[in-house]
Amino acid sequence: MGTLDDEIGRKLAEAEAAGQLKSGQGKPLQIDEAWLQTPPGLRMAFQVLKSAGVPPAEVELFQQRAQLREALGAAADESTRRRLQRQLAELEQNIAFRLEALRRLGQG
């Protein structure tokens, strides 16, 4: 009787031969800088999201921040600049709170 690793390998080989696996499935995770910067408790959850093509909500917040910064740079009048600066400050505070919460969640 084979080991559990042998059985897993056999099942993966069968699935691959049957065309049931997409490229990269059943292979070890690629350890990159993003993986190392992610809190250990969140790494697998974020990897599952990434594999499913679903970015974490924080990615959308970073995109909103970039758009606000661009709009702020192009703002023509002072009232628009103040409004955009206020929105940007609120968004950056929200991002900071969310990242801190993720950091704490990932450690515990």
Automatic annotation (TrEMBL):
Protein name as annotated: DUF1992 domain-containing protein
Residue span(s) of domain DnaJ homologue subfamily C member 28 conserved: 10-72
Regions annotated as coiled coil: 74-101
Keyword terms of this UniProt record: Coiled coil
InterPro entries according to UniProt: DnaJ_homolog_subfam-C_membr-28
